[in-house]
Amino acid sequence: MSRSRSPARSAGQGSGPGDALETDEIRRLCEFLYRRTGMIFGESKRYYIERRIADRMAATGMRPFPTYFSYAQASESEVEYLINIFTVNETYFYREEDQLRCLGRSLLPNIVRGKKPGDLVRIWSVPCSTGEEPYSIAIWLLENWPMVDAYHIEIAGSDIDTRVLQKAVAGSYGERALSRLPPDVVERYFEQSRDGERRIIQDLRESVTFTPVNLVDKASIAAQGRFDVVFCRNVLIYFDNASRLLAANNLYDALHPGGYICLGHTESMSRISSRFRLCRYEDAIVYQRLEEGP
Ligand SMILES: C[S@@+](CC[C@H](N)C(=O)[O-])C[C@H]1O[C@@H](n2cnc3c(N)ncnc32)[C@H](O)[C@@H]1O
């Protein structure tokens, strides 16, 4: 067991001597977070982790690390805090418009073939981070899918990070998040808010629902019911193979047979599970839940 002390001293506000973490302490913390989230934190994150934990030990007064770690393990709200500070939440509107085009041109026409006008179509963005993805789906369909009023479209967003979900519900965004949206779309779906940001108009905000969900926790996924399309983009890259398989199996159960899953650019279901069929559409590659899995 390595006991080398990190040369990096904590520079965080309020942290001080004695807040540096041993290699073994960082490893225990990463293992704990991995078991709770599926995410792996490599050696490259070491300085970041050490700095954030030093700040947290200072803020809670729980130090040294063994004291803090026992406290964190016994407190669900502290675990939630830890998960929230270690997630990577990068996202923006119309992040991959090709996939939205694929949704409107290929996936939804296939899905509604088996439905009657007025029937429910459920679309899930998980993880949704601060909400740009589910709101993008809603806006894109309103703008581009001629059948949008013929069906009852339900769009949901979920994430493990409760802090980003609060932002998603508030629906206020800065320039950077909006930079890919055409100006006329911004005018139609956003209002100016007092802090200089743009806020999604109330009707649209209230039409998208947000719930906390952990992709590697079967029960939390099962509680959301079944969906026709799942967007699970840019999270599997943070998982190891075991977590990817767990998430894939959970999402398989969350899809109606024949339902679709859209992954991020660099992610592939074929390398994770054989329970989905790769579908190459004109606009994007997606995966379809086989009617009956192996
Ligand atoms: C980079 S964002 C992706 C957001 C959006 N899908 C996109 O592509 O723009 C990754 C998100 O995954 C979430 N996340 C990490 N582990 C998770 C888990 N086990 N269950 C649910 N969400 C998770 C993080 O909180 C973060 O908001």
CATH architecture of the largest domain: 3-Layer(aba) Sandwich
Biggest sheet statistics:
7 strands, mixed
Topology order in helix (H) and strand (E) letters:
HHHHHEHEHEHHEEHEHEHEEE
Quick one: overall form? globular
**What percent of the residues sit in helical stretches (DSSP H or I)?**
40-55%
Bound molecules: S-adenosylmethionine
Low-confidence parts lasting 5 or more residues at pLDDT below 50?
1-13
Quote the distance from N terminus to C terminus: 41 Å
The named CATH superfamily of the largest domain:
Vaccinia Virus protein VP39
Strand order of the largest sheet: 6-2-1-7-8-10-9
Average residue pLDDT: 92
Helix segment tally:
12
Could you give the count of β-strands?
A: 10
Query: Rg, please?
Result: 21 Å
Binned strand content: 15-25%
CATH class of the largest domain: Alpha Beta
Class derived from helix and strand content: alpha/beta
Give the key terms:
single chain, 294 residues, alpha/beta, Chemotaxis Receptor Methyltransferase Cher, domain 1, Rossmann fold, 2 domains, seven-stranded mixed beta sheet, three-stranded antiparallel beta sheet, 12 helices, 10 strands, 42% helix, globular, disordered N terminus, binds S-adenosylmethionine
